[in-house]
Amino acid sequence: MKRNDKIRCFGLLLCLLFAVVFVSCSKDDGIDNRQPISSPSGDAIAATVSSLTFQWEAEKNATQYGYRLYTNGDSLVSGGVTKETTLVFTKLKDDKEYKLEITAFAPATSSEFTTAKPVVLVGRTLKIVPLSTPQPSVEVSGLRVTVTWPAVENAEVYNVQVLCAGEVVKGAQQAATSFTFTGEQKSEYSVRVNAETDNEAYSPSAWATIDGIQTEEEAKPIWTVEGDFYDAGEYLTTGKRTLVAYSDGSYVIEDWLYAGSGCDLQFSVNADGTINVLNATGESGGYVTVDFYPGGYYTYLYPAYSSFDAEEGSLSVYAYGGGGQGYSTFTYDPKKIVKAPRYSALAQTSEKSGWGQAFPTLTNVKVDVYDDYVLIHAFAGVEGYDLKVGVDTEAAAITGITPITNGVEGETSTSGYVTLTTGRTDDAATLKPYLAAGYCYGSLGDTEGYILLGAYIGSAWGHYYLAW
Questions:
Q1: CA 352 to CA 461: how far, in whole Å?
Q2: pLDDT tens digits for range 231-242
């Protein structure tokens, strides 16, 4: 090739090289010279057990923000685009770390800026905290058991369970901080209490359990008597009062200072005959205060100067109040003591197969059950006509029948036919039991019993069967 031709070829190549360099360096050559906008700074500003709130500073060159929420294990929880600078995420798991990746986007038409580098914000949900365990205490009075506990902070309700032999027998959900139940005699119970709330920040408390709660035998009245009361201290009141003796050795004078007041004097007796006032409301210098009228009206008694003799029927106790002082007394005739029933129940009559015509149906017949007899109130359904029926429980036999009309006892019959006026005006105006073996039976159990009398009802043979 000639020398000039070589020079022309080299020049052409050099021109082409400059053209390529010029094109590659021009604004339209495909290279983006825009700068990323600043990444936002922020943090998690609030947390609950199930939510997180993130916030970051707005970037003036950003039009929107892309976000992606991850668990600490990089599992995607949520994502999207927003123009806000605050995001709240809910339905999260408690006590868990989350990462929020924020990307600030520049306007798509910007010739100066492009998308920022992602920034990661970290937050952690709160841990659910169990409520404090209640601290219950128990007080037993006869068959009544009262459970109380201080209020638990942040608790809204309490669950109470009463267990006997491992089984729940009573229970409640309540806002109150005490629970009272009546148990069976001489039974052992356990009580469980825990606290709850609807506040998601707290879980139910652990159960607090009290075992070995032993009910006592319920004090029952064993006899009553009416006597004369005289007060030497408070207004010198006098009048008839009723004394009730209980199976636990305690006594009660009902409406002791003022009839109809509803304020009683409750006491027990020491070995030396002095009394202990059981319902005293205060004590000072040997004196005790006892209410005698509703509303906090009280008087003073001095138990050290007192005496009680059940056989003689006398009580005296030194009293002070209302400007007077001296010995207040209660006296009664021991021969007028009325024995209390073992228990009372509601009975009903019914038909006994094979015994002929049944006495008309009666319900809610009150019976007072004693050791060896039962008192049937309104035995035929008419007030004022009662019946006292003696029973030998071991032999299941009737030992005697005594009619009581308007409170007056009639003659007791122990054999043969007994004609009873019932107070009714129908065919059952008279009841004529036959007291003989094979014609009458009875039983007086601890909680249930019956009376079965073969008898003429009016003129028809039949039976009177009362059970409870």
A1: 13
A2: 886 566 788 999
